[in-house]
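CO-FOLDING WORKSHEET

Operator: S.A.
Ligand of interest: adenosine-5'-triphosphate
Run index: 245
Mode: holo prediction, single chain
Checklist:
[x] sequence pasted
[x] SMILES validated
[ ] output reviewed
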Amino acid sequence: MLEIENVSKRYGETVAISEATITFRAGTVHTILGENGSGKSTMVKLLSGIVQPDGGMIRLDGRPFAGNAPADFQRVGFATVFQEVLIAPDRTVTDNILLGLDGLISRRIPRDKRRETAAAALGRFAVTEVPLDAAAGSLPLAAQQLIVLARAVVRKPRILILDEVTAALDYADRESVFKLMRQLAAEGCLLLFITHRMDEVMSLSDRISILRGGKVVKTEDCGVSTPADLLKAMAPQTAAELSDA
Ligand SMILES: Nc1ncnc2c1ncn2[C@@H]1O[C@H](COP(=O)(O)OP(=O)(O)OP(=O)(O)O)[C@@H](O)[C@H]1O
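OUTPUT RECEIVED:
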């Protein structure tokens, strides 16, 4: 469904992503695992139209996809939840969840349906109650994280990219987000799950790609390698230190 082929991205002298090739399949949770600085955020930005590759190609449904702005990616069904929580602090929770959606589906959601639509999106996964009429900026970070997740879910994306999104959440909400991810995959969505947490990876993923120093060092089905082998591929030095300890 989605392929990146020899995709590279440099920032000046720094090669953030180097000739990365990965095939992503619809209906799977595909985890991208890598240490800090391995290029995960750059990969997310490349697949959200925030930065453009210096080389290589993105293919969607077998055809080259030449989107070069976030709106191009959103139009074809990508939605990204970034590591940094991006909200409009003075707008209500409902407004934040529906932000930009009216324009995208080219008709306004009727006033009386707005709260209902926002509540339904949150209701798919949020265990913690999030007050729909509150100013989003007045709520704790965990609630804000739920809001940006709902903003992505309400768009019914074909490709949902989640960049380290569970860090701020408490246990119940985190488990519920994981359950939603499995449900969306079962409905045919491709989920790209970006993390450095091995415990989350094994229970959630269908496929795993490992990034190290901007290179894709491995893509395989979950369960083929043990967590220890994955750690070795992701961070050989840390793995060696752990085995010496
Ligand atoms: N805007 C930028 N300008 C210069 N260098 C950058 C920029 N963004 C990222 N880099 C560099 O590119 C490399 C990959 O960074 P990236 O943020 O993609 O890694 P990451 O795996 O997401 O790390 P983290 O988990 O810390 O966010 C790093 O060496 C980083 O310093």
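REVIEW:
The pocket of adenosine-5'-triphosphate is lined by residues 11, 14, 16, 34, 36-42 (CB under 6 Å).
Strands lie at 2-11, 14-24, 29-34, 55-60, 63-64, 78-81, 159-163, 190-195, 207-212, 215-221.
[x] output reviewed
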